[in-house]
Amino acid sequence: MITLDPEYGPARTIPHPVMFRVLDSEADETAVPKDLPVGKGAEWAYYPGCIDYYDQEMQFSHLNYGDTDHGIIFDSSIKLLKAVGLEPVILDRSFMKCCGHDQLWQGKLDVFQRMRDYNTSVIHRLGIKNLVTSCAEGYRTFKLDYRLDGVNVRHITQVLYERGLRLPPPKDGKTIRVTYQDPCRSCRQMPVDPIYEEPRELIRRVENAELVELKTFRADAQCCGVAQMMYCNDKTKGLTASRMLEAKELDVDYLLTACPKCLTHFGCLHHENRWKPEEERYRYRVVDITHFLAERLEGETVGRSPSVIPQAQDPRAKGRPQGAE
Amino acid sequence: MTLRMQSVKEGVYEERPGFPTQYGPERSDHQPGVPFWPHEVYRDLVIIFVLMAILLFLSAAYTPEVGPPANPAIQPFIVPDWYLLFSWGLLKLADVLPTIVFTDPLGNLINMDAAFWGNMLTFPLVLLPLLLLPFIDRGRETRPAKAAFRTAFGVAFFLGFLFFASLYATNDRILESWPFIADDALKWMVIVPPVLIFFATYVGVRRLGFRDMYWWNLLTIGAAFALVLLMTLWAFALVPWSIDGMDPISRLGTSLNPGTLPLTTFMLIVIIFSALLFYATAMLKEKKAKEVVLASSVIVFFAVVVFAKLFADSNFPATYATLKTLMLYSNFFIALPLFSLITFYLGTRTPYSTYEYLLNECYQCGKCHTVCPVTKVEDDALGGLNLVYNTFKKQHDGVPLWTCLACDACSAVCPLDIKYSDYILEERSKVATQGAAANGGRRYGE
């Protein structure tokens, strides 16, 4: 039986146990594969992170039949990087592991250290110079908690801003109001290279977008409510809801974020609200900033195939008694 | 009353004042407290003058009687009280300084002899720096772990200096009891160990503040290694001279005396150990270096014991000659490797249990409580005072370890830049590791 020091209150609870067992079990295999699929000397590499696992968890698990699409972050990122003239090596999950952010902050130091050592050796073996990540937590973890000597870790918004992403003029002149949630991992927690200006500059490059700020922003931005995937309860949902209500009061069309975790939890609440359509609270889209920018580019963004529309599979979506709480 | 309190709290949460501070260059307005000059000085001067007046009055009004005359047949062992021993030691030490006699422009004969230098050593060199230290070290930080120079110089160096100066006050007794110790060795003892203590303390205290002390370690240990090497060569030049008093240069290499073999052995041990320390500090990763140094110091310790046993049993005059040569420079051969070891340990130790040094900077402004998102939703936390302060005090802080979002909103507004999320990170891994060990390897929540 686990007993904890009572002064710390109850022990941690992790609301997505299966996903974290899968992620943790990855760390047990520590042997670096001999024949890595990419040759040496890769200048640019893109690390998508664990977004496909989130899709599994968010769309198909019993916890949530939400329609938040994390996979599109990957497609959008590749499209945007191609638009600024980069053909990055994709650090696929077939030979990379999770960056270990959640494991570190959940206190599983041993798991994190195994993942870090493995990933570090793979990255060094591939000879990567610039590591691009589309995830705020990955950005912080690779930059601060890893010791990647000689590897320049960049968030994708920084790369797009520095290489001058140009967006075509919009087809319809309708003005859209956009707001941006600063992820805590990429702004406040970064003593070096915090990301404040780059996403805002990128949003301003969309001609018909009007950037409005939430009640708290930049270094004071309130957390989305959940960090390191711990504690999914009414308290954390209350925090998420308060943040989303701030966006609602601003009457925005888009709530953007640069962190898949924020997207997950905003999307979760967004989806829950659909169960009661008569109380439509959040009439805006919650999307990742890469998704938002890629939509404005020419050409298709490959998204999820239409056969996995979650609403069609959710038994509770139909036949739910009206007014039931 | 309750309702009013509640409404005040809600007002605070709803109309939360925006804190426009962001991370930026280092802040310089982090020094609370009352300055020493002039506030404290004025108050202390008043107290000192009143005490002086009382003492002057007492000495004038009540003159004590003179005791019985001394017996000239008894040779007394003259030492002052323990707290003035250092002064007596410095007076004795003063004969190393040159005697200067000259006539000043007014025609007075000025005799700068040992007595003069002894007084100069006592007051201007010991007490004056202590008096001037607050003016030299202008930092207002009062925690020893934060004021590295003040701790190392004002406390460690001075305590060491006073101790070894006091030791020299009894040099005649020491020389009588241990005849192989040279007087010169004791003289060097007054200045060399305190300097080493200063460096070791400085490195250790800086490390306590989570600084990487690689270059400091490298420099101090490298300097120690170089000194040991130089003094070894010098000691070899002195070996023949110490036996029969002949000129060392002309005797160099001409004959072997019985002290050469043990001396060579001892020197080799010391040099190999110093070189190993230097190599480990310069080349190896910190964790590996620690292991190497620990193992080698254990081996060297037993090597010295075996060395002493071997030569003391077989050849006593040779050992005596060796000790006599070594003791002249015992500061370097004994203090330097020890100093290197201590400095290395202090400079590489993980400052883990001292993390609270970072939390106790908190002066309870409560900004963190105002911005913390968890305190807005957790019922327990509504009446909490302050995250950092209460965590440091181990009181219930309203943000228990596992409820904290680690969003770092508190650090963003903290006027002292306390990194609360770093503390959370450390504590979580600690608690989870302990739990895994106690629970058969399984982790919490699984």
What does this structure look like?
The complex is a heterodimer of chains A (325) and B (446). By secondary structure, chain A is of the alpha/beta class. Chain A has one domain. Chain A has twelve helices and eight strands. In chain A, the strands form two sheets. Chain A has a four-stranded parallel beta sheet. A four-stranded parallel beta sheet of chain A has the order 6-5-7-8, with helices on both faces. In chain A, helix 7 packs across helix 8. The two termini of chain A are 36 Å apart. Chain B starts with a helix and ends in an 8-residue tail after the last helix. Chain B folds into three domains: 78-143, no CATH class; 170-350, no CATH class; 355-438, Alpha-helical ferredoxin (Fumarate Reductase Iron-sulfur Protein, Chain B, domain 2), CATH 1.10.1060.10. Chain B is an all-alpha fold. The chains are: A alpha/beta (325), B mainly alpha (446). Chains A and B meet through helix 9 of A and helix 16, helix 18 and helix 19 of B.
Map the helices and strands.
The complex is a heterodimer of chains A (325) and B (446).
Chain A: H1 17-26, E1 44-47, H2 51-60, H3 71-83, E2 89-90, H4 101-105, H5 109-126, E3 130-133, H6 136-145, E4 152-155, H7 156-162, E5 176-181, H8 197-204, E6 209-212, H9 234-249, E7 254-257, H10 260-274, E8 285-288, H11 289-296, H12 310-313
Parallel strand pairs in A: 1-2, 1-3, 3-4, 5-6, 5-7, 7-8
Helix pairs in contact in A: 3-11, 7-8
Chain B: H1 2-14, H2 36-61, H3 85-93, E1 100-103, E2 109-112, H4 114-136, H5 148-169, H6 171-177, H7 183-208, H8 214-244, H9 248-251, H10 260-283, H11 286-314, H12 316-328, H13 330-348, H14 356-359, H15 367-371, H16 374-377, H17 387-392, H18 409-413, H19 420-438
Antiparallel strand pairs in B: 1-2
Helix pairs in contact in B: 3-4, 3-5, 5-7, 7-13, 8-10, 8-12, 8-13, 10-11, 10-12, 10-13, 11-13
